[in-house]
Amino acid sequence: AGRPSGAASKWDIREKVWGHLEASGLAEFPRPVHGRIPNFKGSFQACCSLRDMDVFSRAREVKVDPDKPLEGARLAALQARKTLLVPTPRLRTGLFNRIVPPPGATKEILRRCATSQGVKDYSVPVGLDGKAHVDLVVVGSVAVSEKGWRIGKGEGYADMEYAMMVSMGAVQEDTPVVTIVHDCQVLDIAEELLDDHDLTVDYILTPTRTIQTNCKRPKPQGIMWHKVSSEMLGKIPILKTLRSREKQAGKDVTLQDEHPALANTNRAAVSNKKVMAANTQPQAAPGSAPMGQPSVESDPGNPRLEGSDTVTTVYVGNLPASLRVSELKSALREFQVIPVRLNWQGAQHRAFLDYRDKGIADRAVSSLQGLSLGGNSLRVELAKSQRNKG
Predict the structure, then answer these.
(1) What is the pTM of this model?
(2) What is the reported pLDDT for 279?
(3) Start and end of every RRM domain (predicted)?
């Protein structure tokens, strides 16, 4: 009912790939792979094929995403003494970090520099004026087709990073984009699922082969401000800087929620909600809007939610400290009990889920009760319904 075909089908493909990797024993740490760029058996082998590629040999600066399955690609770049740029997680502090191994680093230290911890310990932020000239981009994918269409994990960060690199002049139209996946992640993707801001790929490396996609579809030409919400702008400080620069250069930088014409349309269809709240529209069909990552997913301007008696709130407690909100959301998707609002209080090891339908709330309690997530058994119950939602 009213679900944009694209959002649903992209999620169907993601769920299928995640489920298959887990069920077939191909999934590797960190698990479950749901909600992530999945790590898989043979990822290191697939990354090693990078060394044989001309586009890699010629590259001086290589940008590699921070995902676990791309660790081998980061190591290859460091071992070949290339400049390695890694986007900062969730783009909170800038766009890239440059990984700088200590002088005379041993193999062992280079290996550590390629891990997510090493990316934190050995990195130097690169500002917008750091004059990055990226010669090769390596991204993770959940699914990809031989034609070069790519589906990420649904938050839109890779697309946004690429658009920001275009905007700051760090990539050109012919800068090659490589993705590294398991063979089972290469599948047919209908072209109508692609949005014009979606990043396409030129090469696909798997443990068994290298595919050149010869993708003719143009890559994003920069940031599409009409697809950026003010919420995203608030979360990604560097976007503000880029926006004021582009505004000074005379570009139209009207945001998605500043467009009077778009204000009343179903936002789930204006697809950069990837980083926005799950169902800011209470009337959206369950699962129709991609799930984002904000800590409190709600729409403060929605009078129908605030103080409404029809909302049933479910308390989820005993969340392990290491649990990410995306992992809880994967479980909610799996059990088909997606709330209209998720209030994540990870530091207090708990979350509150708001449902408009009491039946779904009851089903959430019975499905999640005692579920083991990250080694803890969840404690789930209907919250005291008159909880102050302020």
Answers:
(1) 0.67
(2) 31
(3) 312-385
